[in-house]
Amino acid sequence: MSPKQPPAFPTGFLWGGATAANQIEGAFLDDGRGLANVDLCPSGDARMDVIRGRNTPLALQDNWFYPSHEAISFYKQAEADIELLAGMGFRCFRFSIAWTRIFPTGTDSTPSQEGLAFYDRIVDRCLEYGMTPLVTISHFDCPVALIKEIGGWGSRSMIEHYTRLCSALFQHFKGRVRHWLTFNEINMILHAPFLGAGVIIEDESLATSTIYQAAHHQLVASALATKLAHEVDEENQVGCMFAAGSAYPYSCRPTDVWAAREVDRDSYFFVDIQARGAYPQWAINKLSAENALPEFAPGDVELLAKYTVDFISFSYYNSRTVAGPDSDAVVAKGNLMKTAKNPYLEYSQWGWPIDPLGFRITLCDVYERYQMPVFVVENGLGMRDELAEDGEIHDHERIKYLADHIGAMRDAITIDGVEVMGYTSWAPIDCVSAGSGQMSKRYGYIYVDLDDALEGSGARKPKDSYYWYKKVIASQGSDLSIP
């Protein structure tokens, strides 16, 4: 008797969309919210230096514009926005908690009731519409007070402050939220240490050791969060989250192949620890040779080994192409992570390669490496959207991108046997771009009438992709036809 072929997308598959507090909420000091690292990240030429922890002032600058301060005002109209998401048939909504809405300074003894009440509104609205809340505890979010006082995640004391936040959230939302992510794109600390961990690089000669020490503190904190979540509610599921995208060698030249392998290892380093429970030996050897091996406290090894995650989640926007030393490869622009130009791929308006087969490759690589359920929690195309003469937004390019990528995910499930829990595309409603700080780099199914200066009515309007994704969800992914 031959085994039955499973359906393309199993019953209970979590279709939806993903957002981040600092990119949608606005109201950055309302109801007692404290200042966070993301509030200090301006748009414009200074943005990259700030998020990389170079030339990063810890105070607002009069001549800089900070788009996260207003964003799309989700804080004031969350219920209406969630109703629009429900109109697509969402079964899952991924959002993040703004740490400083709960603990404004990070050291507060009790959580803010105003902050908890706001997230109650979101969770209750999701449950009302039958949407599973998927909550990211820290999405590029660190209280500025803790950066000033102890240096952000460079200090081990951050673990205590973070787990206080986790405990408050697990207790408050017990029974209502059961899917949690500890850190968003944890591997981005390697490329944007201030954005990812509130870390400022004061001495370039110590940059590697500073970053990996901060990463170690986050990894320990993630293990402790997993422990706490299971203690509070045994039905809680905790996932890690990293920025994925398998690396291709620029050529079959061995130095290119090895360079691509090293890029993949750097990305998987974090997941190796969160899913397998230990530092890989290559990382121990490499960091030791560079005098950058993190300092472990007694019990860290046992803690990491015992409290591994329940599933692995990741973002996928594109694959990466990597060239070794002395290569003639052209460097592609537009991404925090350096990549060579792949001549076999088309590129987005912001210079990102478009590679749906790379999505399938990445799904297979992750699943075959860890043999754990995977959850795609970000995937989408940033592009400029314009109102057509008929007053509508015809985002055909986005629909094609999504159709090709969802089709590749379907192949990974049905042909390759990858166990995928769900798919929450980025971002269902237009928001401020984390990388560029722009509104014009739009991902949403729902258009928001704001420009890069955040001027406009703020009105919401469904795009063509809104109705297309609604059809995809209603058909359980079987209808990916493009109008």
From TrEMBL:
EC number: 3.2.1.86
SUPFAM superfamilies membership: (Trans)glycosidases (SSF51445)
Gene Ontology biological-process annotations: carbohydrate catabolic process
Domain of life: Bacteria
EC class name: hydrolase
Keyword Nuclease annotated: no
Swiss-Prot/TrEMBL keywords: Glycosidase, Hydrolase
GO cellular component: a single term: cytosol
Molecular-function GO terms, alphabetical: 6-phospho-beta-glucosidase activity
Stated family: Belongs to the glycosyl hydrolase 1 family.
NCBIfam families, sorted: PRK09593.1 (NF007158), PRK09852.1 (NF007356)
Protein name, per record: Aryl-phospho-beta-D-glucosidase BglH
Organism: Corynebacterium pelargi
Gene that encodes the chain: bglH
